[in-house]
Specification:
The chain is an alpha/beta fold and 239 residues long. It is built from 10 helices and 7 strands. The radius of gyration is 19 Å and the shape is elongated.
């Protein structure tokens, strides 16, 4: 079932009770794949208390040192944040995100990432995602509790999953987050080698990443891009 391929990723969670509440929110909507990046305190009695009947979700949670590790296998990554950041992405509403996630999850792992309670996701976190998710709320007070945000999106995912018996859109062989990062690293290296990028041109590379994200290359297209970069490297070394 596609729901097992949908990861809820909590990044640098400060209060362990929120981890437990998120686990409970997930289980009520059929989600069980909880991934934690550098939680302040886990395992925790407070997390167990707030999880109530969802202790199995906590027990099976995986903990990582970095967000890159947590989403390495994922082909679609959605960053949940209440406001645009310096590194912005195409924006989805919860129902739209649920369609994209359920469709891709039928053939590969996907992820939704939620930031810490105090500051939310950093730009460095958001740049690893393909889409930004914003939950509509009171514009004068739009910041949802993390567990409430997990509950809202989990409901949309579950609701959409009930209607999906076949891929919502034609299935595409999308690259994993790890392979996309390899492309960006290769691209940055080549652009520096040919003096297109110079030191302190991070904004240019950021815009290139956004351009590639919007294009959403599949694995064949990614391999073509890597091949072009390798050919440029070989040609540059001849001079």
């Amino acid at each position: 079932m596609s729901l097992s391929n949908i990861r809820i990723v909590l990044v640098r969670t400060f209060h362990p009770g929120n981890i437990g509440s998120a686990a409970r929110s997930m289980k009520t909507m059929g989600l069980n794949s909880l991934h934690l990046v550098n939680p302040k305190e886990f395992p925790s009695p407070e997390a167990n208390k707030m999880a109530a009947g969802a202790l199995d979700v906590l027990e099976n949670a995986r903990v990582y040192d970095s967000l890159e590790e947590a989403i390495a296998e994922c082909t679609v990554v959605v960053a949940c944040t209440a406001r645009p950041r310096g590194y912005d992405l195409p924006t989805l509403l919860p129902a739209e995100a649920a369609v994209s996630l359920n469709s891709a999850a039928q053939s590969s792992p996907v992820a939704v990432i939620f930031g810490p309670e105090r500051m939310g996701l950093h730009n460095d976190d958001i740049r690893l995602a393909k889409y930004r998710l914003t939950i509509p709320a009171n514009p004068d007070y739009s910041s949802l509790n993390m567990a409430a945000a997990v509950q809202t999106l989990s409901y949309e995912i579950f609701k959409t999953a009930q209607t999906v018996t076949a891929p919502i859109a034609p299935m595409r062989d999308l690259p994993s987050s790890e392979n996309m990062e390899r492309l960006y690293s290769h691209l940055e290296t080549v652009l520096k080698e040919i003096s297109f990028l110079r030191p302190h041109q991070g904004e240019t590379m950021q815009r290139i990443r956004q351009l590639v994200t919007r294009a959403e290359p599949d694995n064949l297209e990614l391999n073509i891009l890597r091949g072009i970069l390798s050919a440029i490297e070989r040609y540059a070394k001849k001079d």
